[in-house]
Design goal:
2 domains, 277 residues, Pantoate--beta-alanine Ligase, Chain: A,domain 2, alpha/beta, 36% helix, Rossmann fold, three-stranded antiparallel β-sheet, six-stranded parallel β-sheet
Length: 277
């Protein structure tokens, strides 16, 4: 039976019942198959799984979609029950930030200033602040995050290591629709025509990942994006797997962000580079 709790005291009472390792999956609700896959991976390893549902105001910019972000708690709770989640923690803003917006927040450092950080100032500071708070509140031993938000995953790993939080951060591969579109709560904002245009993102990533020469990867992916008039590219970047400079040979990441209509989408894929002599 999945317990739904809203306050810190209620959460603590449930956590006291944990027989061992506590796993956490953090979400902002509007759960889809990608979130459910995180829960399944967590359940395979841990008997006690906590899912947090909190739309964090700190990580939304002034022109972003905080107010219209979908809130679907009843449906989300049913999804968590179906996946065998132990506890759903759905706090209010006052429960997470009892003193109001915190005056001290997490500094994401240089890694938080590139890619998404350059496009969304303050986003990663707000994200890391709430993640750190929720890791502590849930007493997590291991936390699961999707690779679709790859820069977020990299920053959380860095924070957990640099601050010695004692929490294992585990990434789970991106879940996609049959046509390749990465699952996202924001996909529901797309009209049918916009959704077709959005497929250019995953097509571009697949084409880029099919190449091995670093100089060819971006050109191949960029060509597909340029040919889709319904997509306005924010960035297309080839990096190392740690989001540092891309190596001439070895593991790398190809990342894209773009607007389709008024909806901003992100996606990425892993690839292996090999610079031919």
């Amino acid at each position: 039976m999945t317990a739904l709790v809203h306050t810190r005291a209620e959460l603590a009472a449930e956590l006291d019942k944990a027989p061992g390792e506590i796993a956490v999956v953090m979400t902002m609700g509007a759960l889809h198959e990608g979130h459910r896959q995180l829960m399944r991976v967590a359940r395979k390893r841990s008997a006690f799984v906590v899912v947090t549902i909190f739309v964090n105001p700190l990580q939304f910019g002034p022109n972003e979609d905080f107010e219209k972000y979908p809130r679907t708690l009843d449906d989300d709770l049913e999804a968590c029950r179906a996946e065998g989640v132990t506890v759903v923690f759905a706090p209010s803003r006052d429960d997470v930030y009892p003193g109001g917006a915190p005056s001290i927040t997490m500094n994401p450092g240089p890694l938080g200033e590139i890619l998404e950080g350059a496009s969304r100032p303050g986003h990663f500071s707000g994200m890391l602040t709430v993640v750190q708070k929720l890791l502590m509140l849930t007493r997590a031993d291991v936390a699961y995050f999707g690779e679709k938000d790859y820069q977020q995953l990299a920053l959380i790993r860095r924070m957990a290591g640099d601050l010695e939080l004692g929490v294992e951060i585990t990434g789970v591969p991106t879940v996609r629709e049959k046509d390749g579109l990465a699952l996202s709560s924001r996909n529901r904002y797309l009209s049918p025509d916009q959704r077709l245009a959005a497929l250019a993102l995953s097509r571009a990533l697949r084409e880029g990942a099919a190449q091995s020469d670093p100089e060819v990867v971006l050109a191949a992916a960029g060509k597909i994006l340029e040919e889709e008039p319904g997509v306005r590219v924010d960035y297309l970047a080839l990096t190392g797997s740690d989001l540092g400079p891309a190596p001439e040979s070895g593991d790398a990441r190809l990342l894209v962000a773009a607007r389709v209509g008024s909806t901003r989408l992100i996606d990425n894929v892993p690839l292996t580079l090999r610079k031919d002599a």
